[in-house]
Specification:
The chain is built from 7 helices and 12 strands. By secondary structure, it is an alpha/beta fold. The strands form 3 sheets. Strands 1, 4, 5, 6, 7, 10, 11 and 12 form an 8-stranded mixed sheet that branches. The structure holds cytidine-5'-monophosphate. Cytidine-5'-monophosphate (C5P) binds next to helix 3.
């Protein structure tokens, strides 16, 4: 008797609890509009298209939860979402959201400010992840990388200086993107570790926990909207 393996149920955690100070706008960048919609609405719609029926968990700054609820009613943007308040760092925000995810599921963690991800990549990654515990999208590094240190001069300005002997071999360097997709029991266990400042993405948390990662090609246009220039670029792409 061959018992078919149960498909894991799909969850996405939309990370949108950052303060977005680098943009210099009047509200965090995830709420700015792109193509007539808030950036996080664009992002959530990609996941709804890629995986209809997916459970969406949106992590927001506490002070913006009612703003976002009002926005969704007014639009109307009718995507059922579990709203969760963020934490002091991205790590703490993810940890809050994981309380709402059961074991035995597939959970994607995606930066709310990456709305240009294609539904095709999301759908393909979810399919792959059924049998892969941790799947990370990466893109090869195209620039030459310099390893530099910052030095403060007497007048208070900063200069960049070479760190002698430190070279970065571009052929082994890749940029990690999101969504990073995990078997939820592994991600939940990894997030029970104590916080470490080296945790800059979910993959680093899972790796520290001792699990190995699998990689797939990401997309060059899947940029993380961080500065005003990124917003110009994203508008052009859309
Ligand atoms: O700060 P960084 O650019 O790494 O943020 C990546 C994503 O994580 C953003 O979408 C941001 O809103 C989110 N974030 C969060 N909670 C924090 C800090 C960042 O959800 N405390």
């Amino acid at each position: 008797n061959i018992v078919p393996k149960m498909e894991r149920k799909r969850y996405v955690i939309i990370m949108a609890a950052g303060s977005g100070t680098r943009m210099g706008a009047d509200r965090p960048k995830q709420f700015l509009e792109l193509g007539g919609k808030a950036i996080i609405q664009q992002t959530i719609e990609v996941f709804m298209e890629a995986s209809p029926g997916i459970t969406v968990i949106t992590v927001l700054p506490e002070a913006f939860i009612s703003h976002w609820r009002d926005y969704c009613y007014k639009k109307p943007f009718t995507c059922p979402q579990i709203l969760v308040k963020g934490g002091i760092t991205r790590f703490h925000s993810v940890r809050n959201a994981l309380e709402r995810v059961p074991e035995g599921a597939l959970v994607a963690v995606h930066d709310g400010v990456r709305p240009l991800i294609t539904p095709k990549l999301v759908a393909d990654m979810f399919d792959m992840a059924q049998n892969i515990p941790a799947l990370i999208p990466v893109t090869p590094c195209v620039d030459t990388m310099k390893v530099l240190s910052k030095r403060k001069k007497e007048d208070g300005t900063e200069v960049l200086e070479t760190i002698p002997g430190a070279v970065a071999d571009r052929s082994v360097l890749y940029g990690a993107q999101t969504p990073q997709i995990f078997h939820s029991e592994i991600l939940k266990a990894a997030y029970s570790q104590a916080y470490d400042t080296a945790f800059t993405d979910d993959a680093s948390v899972v790796e520290k926990y001792g699990k190995s990662l699998s990689y797939t090609m990401g997309e060059r246009l899947n940029i993380k909207i961080t500065t005003q220039d990124d917003l110009v670029l994203a508008n052009a792409v859309m």
